[in-house]
Amino acid sequence: MDRWLTRLLSAIALIIVVAFLTGCAPEPATTEGARVKALYDTFMVAAVVVFALVAGLIGWSIVRYRARDDGREASTAHGNIGLEVAWWSLPTLLVIGLFILTAQVLATVDRRTDDPPLTVTVTGFQWQWQFAYADTDVVLTGSTDGGPELVLPVGERIAFDLESPDVIHAFWVPQFLIKRDIIPGKTNRIELTIQEPGTYRGQCAEFCGLLHDRMTFSIRAVPADEFRTWLSQQGGGG
What we know:
- It is built from 4 helices and 10 strands.
- By secondary structure, the protein is an alpha+beta fold.
- The protein has a 5-stranded mixed β-sheet with strand order 3-2-1-5-8.
- Helix 1 (2-22) runs antiparallel to helix 2 (31-64) and helix 2 (31-64) runs antiparallel to helix 3.
- The radius of gyration is 26 Å and the shape is elongated.
């Protein structure tokens, strides 16, 4: 029986490790994405703890209350009010806590500012992207041969106004950990702050037709002064 219990505990440990590995998300490149990843990690830890507790209690019950060779009946417990309150209240408190955390993260992700330092109008169309910098004449448009490269500053809040003239698309950069749908006839907005310089690949994450797979773009995040220089060189002012 000790060998059987050892195997059970080993299986539980293996499942916990697999759960952590499958729950890994890309390292977030935005301030908002970091909040989302922290929420994911909290949910994963809660799920693993609950699973380990439930699986451990099941295993312990199997061993503790198994059939006896001597004919003795397994012991049972009735009317344990404390135990009944515990297994009702603890899951309830856990769900309430996770709900509150989720609401706080959603409020952060969906927060809008009245006057963001930079606004970019993102137009998703079949089957490419167009990026227009507000208050400038700088417009970047991709083709089916290749998507545009959007240059953005690091450390500044950026507002993306999302529009579509045809079908539903989705603005998605995996390392941002946030996706937002682009719906015809409606302007969606998402505001992000990129934390680190680098190049980030993006794509449409909503199947939008025959050449959906070619609807890609990239974002090159650079220091704010370098971005202003680049924008000026494109004819967008200083």
